[in-house]
Amino acid sequence: MSRTDQKKVNPEMLVEMIPFLRRYHKKVILIKYGGNAMVNDELKKQVIEDIVLMKYMGMYPVVIHGGGPEITSMLELIGKKSTFVEGLRVTDKETMTVSEMVLSGKIAKDLVARISSYGIKSIGLSGQDGGLIVAEQKNPELGYVGEIKKINSELINKLLNEDFIPVISSIGCDENGNRYNINADEAAGKIAIELNAPVQIMLTNIQGVMKSQGDEMKVIPRINVKEIDVYIKDGVITGGMIPKVKGCAESVMKGVEKVYIIDGRKSHSLLSEIFSDLHEGTVIHK
């Protein structure tokens, strides 16, 4: 490539990044990765580039991923129908085996390989590795669906100190060795709290928390945790967004400075949030 073909670096733009680099240097950035950004290959490439750049700029990204659509597709291939109760997948032993295969065997390995291709050390972890996510059965009617009792962050901290990017599958384990499906949003929040992350970023398939204004739906740019119950009571926050927002609020109340709910369908959405005070999604804060 000739010099005339190369893109010119904008020094002013780089200088504008200094306050954000200072703010997040050597800090954990917890990224919950899911939604369309996980299944669209170009978006996946951009997310990985964002994560790698964060690492090279001195941040400590930690990735926790879901994989619901991929699990559903794999179950359909073996002729098994998925059943959901209040957004949670009813999980028998066969479904649990498929979930582990998809989350740890397919998705995590793919993400680790992509990160490693940029010269960054990365490692895939299941929540059962090293007792990372200790869980118990949430409800017998749901089968192998777990509720988190404890996060053992020692393993993650050791990996961060060795310059790895951990990629964590949302699977938990109890003291008897039983494995459970864990809601990835819940796991992201609990891990962010335990790692004292100042920032938790939730990549989703929506622009943020939405509110109707006339004939249009608009993003609510900022939500104080004190406002959440009012929004739920008024029907602004509904359905599956309720547990997501409540989980984000718990993170903020227990030490995470800000939680961003952003649209993972947008190009380089992670970098856009980290290196700007003009947020396009919803920021949940105290």
TrEMBL record:
SUPFAM superfamilies linked: Carbamate kinase-like
Record GO terms (molecular function): acetylglutamate kinase activity; ATP binding
InterPro entries on file: AceGlu_kinase-like_sf, AcgluKinase_fam, ArgB, Asp/Glu/Uridylate_kinase, NAGK-C
Pathway of action: Amino-acid biosynthesis; L-arginine biosynthesis; N(2)-acetyl-L-ornithine from L-glutamate: step 2/4
UniProt signal peptide: none
Compartment(s) where it occurs, according to its Swiss-Prot or TrEMBL record: Cytoplasm
GO biological process: L-arginine biosynthetic process via ornithine
CDD domains for the chain: AAK_NAGK-C
Domain of life the protein comes from: Bacteria
Site (Transition state stabilizer): K32, K244
The protein's enzyme class: transferase
Annotated protein name in UniProt: Acetylglutamate kinase
Species annotation: Tindallia magadiensis
Taxon lineage: Bacteria, Bacillati, Bacillota, Clostridia, Peptostreptococcales
Name of the gene encoding the protein in the UniProt record: argB
